[in-house]
Task: structure prediction
Amino acid sequence: MNKRDATVFLVVKSSCGERVHEFLKQNAWLDRTVAPIEAAERSVGFPVSDLVGEQEVAEAVAATLGIDAEIVRQPTVRRPPVNPHERLKAAVSSWFASHLPQCNPEPFVPKKWERLGELALLPYALKETGEWEEVSRHEHASLLWKAVAAALGVSSLGLQAPIANDLYRSAQVCMLLGSPLVKFIDHGITYTFDASKVMFSSGNITERRRIAGMDMAEEVVIDAYAGVGYYTFPMLVHAGAKHVHACEINPASISGLETGAEANGISHRLTLHPGDNVKTLARLKGQADRCHLGLLPSSELAWEGCLMALKPSGGVLHIHMNVEEEKIERWVKATVRRFEKLVAEHGLGFSIEAQHVERVKWFAPRVRHVVLDLSLRP
Result:
């Protein structure tokens, strides 16, 4: 058997296996790319790195641990890499070697992707590579997409495009494999929707956790831009909101809200308000303890409607906005002044306090996605 095609295994009694395994790891003598083997008579064999002499390892185990070991050789069977980036690189490289050896596979090994249940969304930058046309039109392109999906542990694969500049801010996913219908659990909450029609920002996870950690017991809350429920549901499931009024204009998002609410058992505490929130918020005047305004780049069109929806006892507004980092403080002060003016115009008599500014993530170079928690009280 050719040495390059075989792996050296250090075989010891199973009762000594834990000690030997730890010893090999500490000395960097363990070949992590090959799985251990079960040997005869309650023995286990650990793969030894080819960077060290097999006799040297056996003698060190005997001298240091007092454990006798046997050396055996078996055909090399590599275990799949644990790191998904490594699995992805191996899958893509293998396909290119077989089908397009003249092309560079590196552009098709993205560093980031978004996973939504059984669907992985690859970055749109792949479509802008010089090799995209040749790869996507190749007669065996489907084998590449299947290999990529398997490497990422999903059954469906899509190419994420920029959000459409339309009324619904629709998702623009180009499906490469499988179905865009997704269902997954995040922080104990079930989400289900058509990813080719609506967006779900996994990058806002810290803000969803923050909102979920608030105490909204006995509160009536308005979500002015509910989407598929990625703030609505945490407020109901974890923050304990008494009732949420969800305003949403996109029919596909409304469908996701309905199915998700049913899956989470919260339909009885949720009222959907389809259509333009300028109109639906007007029908909720004076009913809310809290309003969530989660639209980017700006939720400004709903500011006045949410202000008027607060109860006479006042409440809290969570205002999302994209702001240049060096202008955040100025934006907060300007926003407070804007609400002071609106309060005066409507004779509401609220005092206004900027309670907190959450820097959620970078939206673009020098531009932050921020959330301002604004308290308005008599």
Remarks:
- The radius of gyration is 28 Å.
- The longest strand covers residues 351-364.
- Residues 5 and 287 are 73 Å apart (CA to CA).
